[in-house]
Structures are given as structure tokens and as C-alpha cells.
Amino acid sequence: MPRVETRHFGSKDYSEDSVIYMPCGMPGFESETTFLLLQVPEQYPLVYMQSSRTADLCFVALPVFTVDPQYKIELSLEDGLLLGVGRSPRIGTEVLCLTLVAIDGSEVRVNLLAPILVNLQTRTAAQCINAEPDYSHQHTFLPAVEAISA
Amino acid sequence: MMMMRRREGEKIMIGSDIVIHITQIGRNRVRIGIDAPRDLTIVAEEVRQVAEANTAAAGTSHAAVLELLGRLQIRRP
Q1: In this complex, which of B44, B48, B72 lies closest to A147 when CB atoms are compared?
Q2: Which residues pair with B53 in a beta bridge?
Q3: What is the reported pLDDT for A147?
Q4: I need a surface site. Which of A24, A34, A59, A62 has the fewest CB within 10 A?
Q5: Closest residue of B to A146, CA-based?
Q6: Contact (CB<8Å) A108/B68
Q7: Number of helices and strands in chain B (H, E)
Q8: Exposed / middle / buried, residue A3 (Cβ in 10 Å: 0-12, 13-18, 19+)
């Protein structure tokens, strides 16, 4: 089983089906094209997006429905072609949709403008700017009462 | 901010070597072409916002993440 150096968990075994491929990288991280999606059962529903190339680079993400159960995505033609899905893919069955989390002090912000989409069949992924209006790249997340798992 | 009215097919000059082409005007979107020196970075505003948000996300500490987890009350599937 291959191993990877991780930011939070030291050296870790992984299976090939946890690898996602981002041909274009991500804005600000264009050369990072392969990530592992790691989950820790006790830390459900957090998803760690660990770079396979840079041990110190690991994003923390949440399934988008955990944050907004009504979330809708509309992709650009280019992103749809890259992912091999239509403009409005079905979240959860056709694609995995993750929102990246940034925490600064007591402020928790999630990026609903540009979620990470993963084609569940091919594992091809992209950070897609949602064409649906009104989603923010720094949506304030208040995990107040209950987050519904996706 | 300078405002200018342009029709489809018209252009805007910025300095001597940047040209904005108004190529298509839709109901709520405009398609533009940009001629500019190759060393000039041109990105949509959202791409820059996302790059900044990604940098902030990459800098989030594990302790802060675990503290967030403690505040989430999750109903498992």
C-alpha cells in the first residue's frame, strides 16, 4: 500500500481510490494536481484534502450540504467538460461537492463560491466557480444547532 | 471610476498596448477579449478571491479545526 507524508497525521498508508486528480490545480496552488481525501471516523464529517506532493499542504473541507442543505451548483461549460459531467451535476451521486474551511480566531468561513467537485467515477476534480449567484468565497459558517450530514 | 458605453464589436484602449474587445453582449453576461502584454496577469475577480481564500484555508491550524468539530452537532446518516 502506498504511503504519503501528511501535515496532520504523519506518514500514512492510503488506497488508490482516495486519490483525486486536479488537472488545473487550484487558484493559488496551480502546481498541486494530486490530493488524497482522508477521513477520520471520529472527526466525521471533516474531509482532509492532503496534497500528495507537499506534505505541509492540507486543506480541511466539509461536504457542502453540511453547511447548506439547499446548495445548488451550476458549472461553466469548461468545468463541466473538464469533469466530464453536465452543467448541473447531481451532488452526492454524480459528484462529491466539498467546501473548503478557513478558520481565523473565532471566525469560521467556508468557500461556497468555489467548491471542490470530484467526479465520483473518474476521481477527476476541479475547484469550480459556481455560476449560481449569491454564493460567497467567505461565507460565515455558524455551526450553531445542528449540521445535517450529506 | 470612469464609465463608458460600448456596443458589441467595439473596443476600448488602455494605454498603447492593451485593447478590450466587446465581442458579445448577452442578457446578463458580456463576453470580452483582451489583448495585453504576455507578462501582465489577467484574471477574473473571483479567481483572485478564491486564490486568497485558498491561502487562508491552507493556513488554518489543526487545533482550530478540532475546536470547530467540537461545535458541530452532527446527525450521522
Answers
A1: B72
A2: none
A3: 47
A4: A24
A5: B73
A6: yes
A7: 2, 4
A8: exposed
